[in-house]
Amino acid sequence: MTAAEHKSHAPVHVSAFVVTCSDSRDASKDESGRVLRELLEAEGHSVSGYKVIKDEPEAIRATLKEAQESGARAVIFNGGTGIGRRDSTVETLQGLFEKTLPGFGELFRMLSFKEIGSAAMMSRATAGTYQGMILFALPGSPQAVRLGLQRLILPELGHAVRELTR
């Protein structure tokens, strides 16, 4: 089976939940969350929920439960992926992952390096699976969420969800 034939069995539209992890933004100031929702919907995916939360493990875990209850098959986080003292999104998600997708972070940093140079090494973008959902964690800048969504997530979202059900 060719790669195209393999992907042809994947769902075209996926239900996604968008989460912004930030200690300083609220929904009215969350450009990155808005960009994620708009790009997902422009590609025909549904957004089953959206939340701005503090970058705290308990808030992240509670929001994952909410995302699962909403029927989301993908959860896209933005923020909390840097090296700051309060950045805990990556550690929290990695502790929950059933399977990790190391290629996602590697490719994101490669693409980011081409745009912003050596500062890309400070991104800890990551992805993995958790209880029937695929989770992605992107940096919190609008430029970073556009890059990750358009170049990596959207081209494979249906394919990734299909693989979760096999």
Cα-based radius of gyration, to the nearest Å = 15 Å
Superfamily (CATH H level) name = MoaB/Mog-like domain
**Architecture, CATH level 2?**
3-Layer(aba) Sandwich
What is the distance, rounded to the nearest whole angstrom, between the alpha carbons of the first and last residues?
16 Å
Summary of the model, kept short:
It is built from 6 helices and 6 strands, in the order H-E-H-E-H-E-H-E-H-E-E-H.
What is the topology?
Blueprint: H1 3-7, E1 15-21, H2 31-42, E2 46-53, H3 57-69, E3 74-78, H4 89-96, E4 99-100, H5 102-116, E5 126-130, E6 133-138, H6 142-164
Parallel strand pairs: 1-2, 1-3, 3-6
Antiparallel strand pairs: 4-5, 5-6
Helix pairs in contact: 2-6, 5-6
Q: What can you tell me about this protein's structure?
A:
This protein has 166 residues and is of the alpha/beta class. It has a single domain, classed as Molybdenum Cofactor Biosythetic Enzyme, Chain A (3-Layer(aba) Sandwich), CATH 3.40.980. It contains six helices and six strands. Helix 5 packs antiparallel against helix 6 (142-164). The radius of gyration is 15 Å and the shape is globular. The two termini are 16 Å apart. The model has no long low-confidence stretch (mean pLDDT 94).
